[in-house]
Amino acid sequence: MKFLRNVFVLWLWSSAAAFSQSAPTFSQDDPAATPKTILIARFENLSNAPGIEWIGESFPEVMGQRLGSNSWQLLRRGERLNAFDRAGIPPGRHPSRATIFRVAEQLDVDFVVLGSYNFDGHTFIATCQWLDVKRAHLSKEMKESGPLPQLIDLQTALAWDLLRLNNPALISSRDTFVSAAPPIRLDALENYTRGVLALSSADKIKYFREAVRINPSYTEALLGLGRADFEAKQYEPAAAALAKVSPTQAVGGQAQFLLGLCEFYLGKFEKAEAAFSELTARVPLPEVYNNLGVAQARRGRPAAGDQFQRANDTDPGDSDYSFNLAVALYRKGDSAGATRAVRETLAANPGDAEARSLMESLVAASDPKFAVTATPPKMPLERIKRNYDEDAFRQIAAQLQRTLAAKLAEKAQRLPKP
Q1: What is the distance between the alpha carbons of residues 52 and 118, in angstroms, rounded to a whole number?
Q2: Is this prediction's pTM over 0.90?
Q3: Using a CB cutoff of 8 Å and minimum separation of 24, what contacts does 288-292 make?
Q4: Alpha-carbon dihedral sign for residues 22, 80, 406, 162
Q5: What tens digit of pLDDT does each residue of 284-342 get?
Q6: 69: which DSSP letter?
Q7: Cβ–Cβ under 8 Å, residues 355 and 344
Q8: Rounded CA Rg of the chain
Q9: Is pLDDT above 90 for 83?
Q10: Which helix (H) or strand (E) segment is 229 a member of?
Q11: CB 188 within 8 A of CB 61
């Protein structure tokens, strides 16, 4: 509960305008609607045509981008695969609708998009249905068809069909919605999707790099390439790709966080600080504050301690945050505060050998004989965080928005009628 309260405060601090900029703007859902969680399942391939198996995974990618807005919280591919893995579904196997429904219930998802596609060599046909998990209701089937080269327009049109079904008062016409979506070349989408599906780092880099070469402004491909290069410890090319992702894009936060890590590992601490500092204004997550503090500490900036304090206050259960705070406090000469912080670290992680060594140094330093019997302890380096969980932040923010909307509605009902 303390974590939720702190996130709520941080969320209120963040700019509402900046928060809304992190999602695509071409979806025209009711802005007053509370966010709903959607899982878009991989579409089933009903065709015998060779070489189009990758298209099934492209539907969640494209339709997820088209459906994205402040009214929808989309489960990412990693969450979907983890949930299917826990349900015993091997990778690559298409689960039954009953299994998908069960997984959706376990994930507490509001809606699931189910679909399939077929291709007879001339016409590509895609169909989907909207599953309301809470009501256990399956919508009518929606269908789009056309030449295979128009795949992305067909996927975008299906997204419009779903939005229209959910909100019949949608003003935008189908053609306007399709034309307003960011353009993606089909061959770039194929390479990007094959990169998503690839198992090896080398293959991922190869496919993502080709997608970017074909479509230089393809945001998701730039992020995929940057992440793949980062995981391969190729920080220079990773930073070059990530720097091209606008912070206002839906994936801008992830790109900015990885960019900060790349600059940090390259020893460019000033650039790392700038990247994390810019991100804190939009997504005030504890890992962002922590990494901002680490970058500042490497530059010898005293403000680092304030960032570690914010991270620790937001998520007091994470031993890395209290450890970094302890190091910062000791550097400032606050031995008592450092001791309290490192005790928090050991309470959360009793097996932390580095924290235990720091505690022993702090205890020895407090001994009056220390000044004449020993040299000052060598302080360990602050710990950087590599995880970035913006989805969790947005889910909490969405829940808070629901709660606030319900309270406002309750107050409105109590007001005297004119």
Answers
A1: 10
A2: no
A3: 288/257, 288/388, 289/314, 290/320, 290/321, 290/324, 290/383, 290/384, 290/385, 291/257, 291/260, 291/261, 291/264, 291/384, 291/385
A4: positive
A5: 899 999 999 999 999 999 999 999 999 999 999 999 999 999 999 999 989 899 999 99
A6: B
A7: no
A8: 25
A9: no
A10: helix 219-231
A11: no
Residue with tokens 């990169």: 195
Q: Are strands 44-45 and 124-132 parallel, antiparallel or unpaired?
A: unpaired
Q: Is the pLDDT of residue 48 over 50?
A: yes
Half-sphere exposure of 311 (CA within 13 A, CB side): 30
Q: What is the DSSP string of 5-63?
A: HHHHHHHHHS-HHHHHHTS-S-----TTSPPEEEEEPPPEE----TT-TTHHHHHHHHH
Domains and CATH numbers, the chain: 29-181 (3.40.50.10610), 183-261 (1.25.40.10), 284-399 (1.25.40.10)
Cα torsion 213, 21, 80, 397 to 10°: value is: 160
Choose among 245, 195, 238: nearest CA to 218: 245
Residue type, 38: I
